[in-house]
Amino acid sequence: MRKIFCFIFLVVLFSCSIIPVFSLGQTKSSSDEKPEQSFQEKPTGFYNVTSFTPVTFNGDLFNGVQTVCGYKVLPYLAFGGGLGYERFKSIPTYDNFKTDLSLLPVFVDIRYTILNGKVSPVIALDAGYRILLNRPTTQTVYDTSYYSVITVSGRSVYADKDLYWQGGPFITTALGLKVRLYGRWSAYLAGEYSLWSISGDRYTTETKFLLGSNDIWSKVGYSESTVRTTAYLHLFQVRLGIVF
Question: Is 167 in a helix, a strand, or coil?
């Protein structure tokens, strides 16, 4: 299983929300100026993080979107839950097997904001279950073994492929930055690493051949077998979004 790094991401996000406006009481001066308005983020209360992963390691465009809603119990600590959609094309599993995946992640979200300034580092942890929306099949991988018994030579050709039909649990860690834009609106940029699994069946066929006296391989046997298999996947990616 290989580590995969994602670089160069581009996304435009639009969100609609009501921005609370707080007025600071001021003493009237002889210049008769209007009171200054201060737009500040609430120390506790509802929060939302809507984000995209627009490009994958192998060039898929806009492969994922998710939204997280929760509650800030402290100015720096928040708990919530999230839902998303992900699409991966020819993602490696293991043993050089690749497949196309459509997934629905459902998860809990814990995030800690280290500072409360214009630019604030954020640590996030997501844990949940990725529901498999399709039933993908990997490519078929072939292998050949040769043997000989006294004067008889033979070979066996194996063909393996996986069919996945069940998702699995996942965990994602993220380290990012929240940049205050206006009021409760902030831009969010993070690098994250995710580990998860999917399950299914591995289908293996074996075809046996014997080498004849005229150097021609003759088919002498064929068998099939099916076993349960679990593939573990991991992914590095960059996430961009809006926080409010």
Answer: coil
